[in-house]
Write a structure and sequence with these properties.
By secondary structure, the protein is of the alpha/beta class. Helix content is 36%, strand content 27%. The two termini are 41 Å apart.
């Protein structure tokens, strides 16, 4: 099967993604750049459909045929796992395969701030991991979760779409639930996690209003909640949450967030100086009394200024972190 050879080559070349579309050559994304694999020839719509369907269950084949979109994961035995988004375009079927490293990420190797470990040690509250598509949010969340598993005796429930990193029980007991196979939705998975004696809940993505409501409720009632958002900037992430709610609920949400929020990390992957890899750059907001007061009053526009002066609480801006990376020789 051609698709297996392409996936293996993507691992050899250190690609983050494999893009397969009808009527063109297979494509890799290596350090953010598009690389065509012309040796494999152009994929016809029929050949690509057959190859992609060979990676799916009967249920998944039915879903993609009816819904025209499908998220799932596959395990290329002996090599790696991949997160897959399958779709249809004007040329026919297509898919993007995202490499999931089998080895759990090490916190220190990712250049994540130590303050994040302090926040992850709390027994309740909300930690948001934010950034654009392909910025390494899942890797950061997994590093945080792995730290908790190795150091604390907690009951951890994850709700993911699909499951990416596979965790083993350490000091903590871990249960991973996948949307579509072991729970109907993020909302349902989170709702029932609150009835399952959970201590830590990881939400793969906060997509809708009700999931936000349940996440805040979980953080208020004794759970540490770790979740991702597709946003740029720590202050904008808070604005995004508030703006999702109707006008008559905003005051209540701002009050809840001011109490429950522990911190927000915003991240991006920057090409290294030698062009051979990418390095993580971050911005960290920590919810101290000043930040909490701004959130409660809706003065979100004041948060960037508080970030600049919040060094003693572990806060820093993206600009500050980029400067440090340049000084250390990681980036230009």
């Amino acid at each position: 099967m051609k698709i297996a050879k392409i996936l293996k080559e993507s691992l050899e070349k250190g690609a983050s993604d494999v893009i397969l579309t009808s009527g063109t050559f297979p494509v890799l994304k290596v350090n953010g750049d598009v690389v065509y694999l012309e040796d494999y020839g152009v994929y016809s719509a029929e050949e690509l459909k057959n190859d992609l369907f060979s990676t799916m269950s009967e249920k998944q084949k039915k879903e993609i045929s009816e819904e025209f979109e499908l998220d799932y994961s596959i395990d290329l035995k002996g090599y790696s796992r991949f997160r897959v988004n399958c779709f249809f375009s004007k040329n026919g079927i297509g898919a993007v395969f995202r490499t999931i490293k089998t080895e759990l990420p090490n916190f220190d190797s990712l250049l994540l701030p130590k303050k994040l470990l302090e926040l992850a040690s709390r027994k309740n509250g909300l930690i948001l991991v934010t950034g654009g598509v392909g910025s390494g949010k899942s890797t950061t969340m997994s590093a945080i979760l792995n730290y908790i598993i190795e150091n604390f005796s907690r009951h951890i429930i994850t709700v993911e779409d699909p499951i990416e990193f596979v965790f083993s029980n350490g000091k903590s007991l871990v249960e991973q639930r996948e949307v579509g196979s072991s729970t109907k939705s993020f909302e349902a998975g989170l709702k029932y996690a609150l009835r399952q004696a959970s201590d830590v809940i990881m939400i793969g993505e906060m997509r809708d209003l009700e999931t936000f409501r349940l996440a805040l409720r979980a953080a208020e009632t004794g759970n540490l909640v770790i979740a991702t958002l597709h946003t740029s900037g720590t202050a904008r992430s808070i604005s995004r949450i508030i703006d999702m709610f109707p006008g008559d609920e905003k005051d209540q949400i701002m009050s809840q967030l001011s109490v429950s929020l522990l911190g927000v990390i915003w991240q991006d992957l920057i090409k290294t100086k030698d062009g051979k890899g990418r390095v993580l750059s971050t911005e960290l907001l920590v919810n101290n009394s000043a930040i909490a007061n701004m959130i409660r009053k809706g003065d979100i526009h004041q948060i960037p200024g508080a970030l600049e002066t919040g060094n003693k609480d572990g806060m820093y801006t993206m600009e500050h972190n980029l400067k440090k990376l340049r000084e250390a020789g990681y980036i230009q």
